[in-house]
Write a structure and sequence with these properties.
- The chain is mainly β and 171 residues long.
- The protein contains one helix and ten strands, in the order E-E-E-E-E-E-E-E-H-E-E.
- The strands form two sheets. Strands 1-2-3-4-5-6-7-8 form an eight-stranded antiparallel β-barrel. The chain has a two-stranded antiparallel sheet with strand order 9-10.
Length: 171
């Protein structure tokens, strides 16, 4: 399983920005959930910019990692199977990932080249005492709080674990 946080998106030739808090959860079986919530929703209601889920795949093309995300559900369309969502992936020296590709810019509604910067995090495993109880109900709760904070224009995930049988406040 992986957790990916988007730090920025750049619609070429514009500057990079990050109008959303975006998190992607991907299972070992390549199933993913991608949720993008507007940072400044204003009067738009829920603040949901885009949410979709499906199955991802990756292949190497001419030495470049190319990923495809096949949407099974998508908040922007009633026919998610028609969505083209793919990009080339380039690991960066600072540990982040650059994704490049071309997709519809939701503001201009035109096909536009983009660049996204992602930070990948590894989830922590359950404590052994929780695993042996056979259930996550009752007194064995695993609290995972994903807080996305804006620092220097980038989204950073702060993951905190409350622990077995305790909530975040220790009770």
């Amino acid at each position: 399983m992986s957790i990916s946080i988007r730090n920025s998106i750049r619609w070429l030739p514009d500057d990079a920005s990050e109008p959303t808090s975006t998190i992607v959860l991907t299972s070992p079986g390549h199933r993913f959930v991608d949720i993008r919530v507007l940072k400044h929703a204003g009067d738009t209601g829920t603040g949901l910019d885009w949410a979709f889920a499906g199955i991802s795949s990756t292949e190497t093309r001419n030495g470049v990692r190319h990923s495809t995300w096949r949407h099974l559900v998508d908040s922007r369309t009633r026919i998610p199977e028609t969505v083209v969502d793919e990009g080339d992936i380039f690991p960066q020296d600072n540990g982040q990932t650059l994704e490049t590709g071309c997709m519809i810019n939701p503001v201009t509604e035109k096909l536009t080249d983009y660049q996204e910067i992602w930070t990948d995090l590894e989830p922590e495993d359950l404590p052994e005492s929780c695993k042996t109880r056979g259930s996550l109900r009752g007194d064995c709760q695993y609290d995972l709080v994903g807080t996305i904070k804006a620092l220097s224009g980038s989204a950073i995930a702060s993951l905190q674990r409350g622990g077995c049988g305790k909530t975040e406040d220790g009770n």
